[in-house]
Amino acid sequence: MAEFLSPRASRIEASPASVLRRRARELRAAGRDVIELSSGDLDFPTPEHVTAAAHRAAQRGETRYTNVDGTPELKDAVRETFRQNGLAYARNEIIICNGSTQALANAFLATLRDGDEVIVPAPYWAPYLAQTRLADGTPVPVPCPQNNGFKLNAEDLRAAITAQTRWVVINNPVNPSGAVYTSAELSAIAAVLKDHPDIWVLADGLYERIVFNGCSAPTIAAVEPRLKERTLTVSGVAKTYAMMGWRVGYAGGPAPLIDAMTNIQSQTTSGASSISQAAALAALTGPQDLIAERAAILARRRDTFIASLNRCPGLSCPYPDGTFYALVSCAGLIGAKTPVGSRIETDRDVAAYLLEAVDVAVVAGADCGVSPHVRASFALPAERLAEAAARIERACVALNGG
pLDDT by residue (tens digit) across 314-330? Predict the structure, then answer.
């Protein structure tokens, strides 16, 4: 079988989060009460007017194929959403995809040649690396430590650029740290990129509406319009409207890139679901009140959950300004022994210990390019977060016999 598979297949592994979800579900099927802090799912329901719009579309018979790049109505709604963020796109500069993940993959497949490099600030969302490799490119992680706020700074970007650099990924807010770039920080990055006219920017703003403390999450093409002609701005409805399973993402960029991405999509998945697109249209054009209300709920969960984690021996965690993830340092647990005598050597060991010992699933920081940390979602009901924090504290106390 190994000889049958392509070299490309050998470069790709299942995403760490999907592996964790599978293991958590196996344990749950065996009767264990697993609390998943590893998932990018929100516990909020999709807004009622959105599901109602999908139902009406199905009843009207809107069940045929749409244009590969999306319905004109949804593309216009996306254009208006981008306009509110300071970005003007024509309809032929917009593509609707099967989730924002596909938009990213389409872009890399459309542009990368063997050996082209993609600069990815670390911590990162692991698929950035996998998708680069899938398209025959080379990911170049650039460490962004906590004393940089887990954000890429201009000097480190400049040092990472080579003659092979093709793209720079800017995720704002950042998954997994919840860091939020300011306009000034993006301006400094843009100043570097203006000296390198052949480098493109992939601006991933999937969590742009999930921000706290009065923050906003600007996108680099709005901050520096001179970069717009070589920026692909990506977002979607999954996180903002709790529509993870509807699988609708979108991107705006120069028409020649969008055309190439559409051609690739036409030969892989074709267009997004017609019913999901009707739902996404209702989400983008309907009432927006729930966004701020839900962000406020997430902020309260964040405050309580992280305060609890910071009481756990061996753990420390800053308060994120966006997303619904906490990036937790577990440096104080490295070297400890579990109650059964195993030694904790890495953050993967920490994640495995928490899952097997107290039925709490988290993502190892090694899978996000930042060790020793774990990523924990606080997109769960408050009572489940309180239970998860209590279990984590119990597990930390049990190391080295408490």
Answer: 999 999 999 999 999 99
Extents of the domains making up the chain? 7-45+289-401, 48-285
Q: Structure pTM?
A: 0.95
The residues, ordered by sequence, that sit 6+ positions from 125 with a Cβ below 8 Å of its Cβ are 171, 175, 176, 204, 368
Distance of alpha carbon 166 from alpha carbon 160, whole angstroms: 12
CATH top-level class for 48-285?
alpha beta
Q: Above pLDDT 70, what percent of the chain?
A: 98
The residues that bridge with 235 in the sheet, in sequence order, are: 250
Edge-to-edge strand ranges of the sheet holding 373-377: 325-329, 373-377, 363-364
Q: Are 36 and 42 in contact (CB under 8 A)?
A: no
Distance of CA 115 to the CA centre of its chain: 25
Helix axes 127-134, 100-111, angle to 10 degrees: 40
Q: How confident is the model at residue 402 (pLDDT cuts 50, 70, 90)?
A: low
